[in-house]
């Protein structure tokens, strides 16, 4: 997505993802991602996984994970952890009514305009001119 709300995972190199896993503080349950990391990422690359987007696509569903595990010899649990770590780079939209700084009246009025969550808001208001236009529409 070129909007900037989401990271463009197709342009995020798998080697960069590997480097992050090696160097960042991981949750204890995800430390297994570091085991044999060089060998594991070599296998990913040899199977056409060159970006975070490729990885996310290959591990999108349980069926795809099982198929990829069978093809590569990876453990299902390892691939599931890898998918969770990859998915952590994509934010989940939050309903505007859940923001403490947003009163319910404003959230409801924005919802009537088709702006229900943080992604919708970002898409409609990430540039100054768009925010001004939205403010004018909101006042109507």
Structure commentary:
- With 140 residues, this protein is mainly alpha-helical.
- The protein has two domains: 9-87; 96-139, no CATH class.
- Helix content is 56%, strand content 0%.
- The protein contains eight helices and no strands.
- The chain has helices spanning 14-23, 37-46, 52-58, 62-72, 76-87, 104-112, 118-125, 128-139.
- Helix 1 packs antiparallel against helix 2.
- The mean pLDDT is 90.
Reconstruct the topology from this structure:
Layout: H1 14-23, H2 37-46, H3 52-58, H4 62-72, H5 76-87, H6 104-112, H7 118-125, H8 128-139
Helix pairs in contact: 1-2
What's the number of domains? 2
| Tally of DSSP β-strands | 0
Uncertain regions: pLDDT < 50 for 5+ in a row? none
Class computed from helices, strands and strand pairing: mainly alpha
Mean pLDDT equals 90
Global geometry? elongated
Helical amount: 55-70%
Number of helices: 8
| % residues in beta strands | under 5%
Termini Cα gap: 31 Å
Can you give me a brief rundown of this structure?
The chain is mostly helical and 140 residues long. It contains 8 helices and no strands.
Features of this protein?
140 residues; mainly alpha; single chain; elongated; 2 domains
């Amino acid at each position: 997505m070129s909007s900037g709300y989401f990271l463009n995972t197709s342009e995020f190199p798998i080697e960069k993802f590997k480097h992050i896993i090696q160097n960042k503080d991981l949750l204890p349950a995800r430390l297994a991602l570091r085991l044999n990391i060089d060998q594991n990422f070599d296998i990913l690359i040899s199977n056409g996984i060159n970006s975070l987007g490729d990885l996310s696509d290959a591990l999108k569903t349980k069926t795809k994970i099982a198929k990829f595990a069978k093809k590569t010899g990876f453990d299902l649990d390892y691939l599931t952890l890898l998918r969770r770590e990859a998915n952590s780079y994509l934010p989940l939209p939050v309903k505007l009514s859940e923001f403490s700084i947003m009163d319910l009246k404003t959230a409801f009025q924005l919802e009537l305009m088709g702006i229900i969550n943080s992604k919708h808001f970002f898409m409609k208001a990430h540039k100054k001119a768009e925010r001004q236009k939205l403010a004018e529409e909101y006042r109507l």
